[in-house]
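Q: What does the assembly look like in three dimensions?
Context provided by user:
Components: two
Sequences:
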Amino acid sequence: MRSGKLVLFFVAGGLFGTGLAVSGMTDPARVIGFLDVFGEWDPALLFVMVGAVGVYG
Amino acid sequence: MNHYTLWHALVGGILIGLASLLATLLSGKIPGISGVFGRLLVAATPDKTWRAVFLLGLIGGSALSFTLWQSAALFRPVRPFVVMAIAGLLVGFGTRLGGGCTSGHGVCGVGMGAKDSIAATLIFMVTAMVTVFIYNRVAL
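A: Here is the predicted structure of the complete assembly.
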């Protein structure tokens, strides 16, 4: 594979990791907060999905 | 940028969507993280290089964000490590059995409007909600 293409794969991974971290999805408590619908529900994961699906779709 | 808001969630999601789009265009495959990583562990996989580079970028991007933004560095385990290890095994097994995870089915598949991905995402989200309900409020 061309090295230029691999650099782009690294950039794509970097964007993904940045997105995960900025969105707070590297924090287990925030993910569980979304899943805990009968507790203090945290809608953050829904916002992440809306942003990601909106761009990808 | 240190105080977390739902804007962080939305902007982070947009970045994840862009990253997934770019990785799809580059690889010609659906770049779900569980699949990208899982196939890296299979000896017969021919295209290991881009998978490894993509995942290295993912870890690098997260690490850089953790140093730049306080809110990104927040990590609250909330479960004992042995529970997280068991959960990780179940997630690995389930994502291979179901052919995708939150990124492959949830972002890419749902984004493309694939019916099986929409079904898979609804099923694993509801299953996870029931699991959290039982863990937090019933059993343990």
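Follow-up: Chain B is about 75% helix and 0% strand.
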